[in-house]
Design brief:
Radius of gyration: 13 Å
Largest sheet: 7 strands, mixed
Distance between the termini: 37 Å
Number of strands: 11
Structural class: mainly beta
């Protein structure tokens, strides 16, 4: 299975970016999908996730109301729409796939895409 993330870049505070993650090699619809991020000097942390069966979503408190996760099972792609970006959102963002919402044992990771938010 391969997860290919894209869409990162440099944006000013208050701006928007949309990340994409294309999954190949397995039945995408079977997997819960998520986005994690790792800021410089910090541990990787969960940002958001979307379930495989009913599309239920959850968000870290720090991004609620600003970020939206979605998935397109026909395109084998998960998206992360990020609005009202803040400098503290600066991080490498990773997409991830797991079965049964078992986020403590992620099955697959993408390669990461860097998001830099300038003040």
């Amino acid at each position: 299975v391969q997860l290919q993330a894209s869409g990162g870049g440099l944006v000013q505070a208050g701006g928007s970016l949309r990340l994409s993650c294309v999954v190949s090699g397995r039945t995408f619809s079977n997997y819960d999908m998520g986005w994690f991020r790792q800021a410089p000097g910090k541990e990787r942390a969960s940002v958001t996730a979307i379930s495989s069966n009913n599309g239920r979503t959850r968000y870290a408190d720090s991004v609620k109301g600003r970020f939206t996760i979605s998935r397109d099972n026909f395109k084998n792609t998960v998206y992360l729409q990020m609005n009202s970006l803040k400098p503290e959102d600066t991080a490498v963002y990773y997409c991830a796939a797991t079965i049964g919402s078992n986020w403590r044992a992620v099955d697959y990771w993408g390669q990461g895409t860097l998001v830099t938010v300038s003040s």
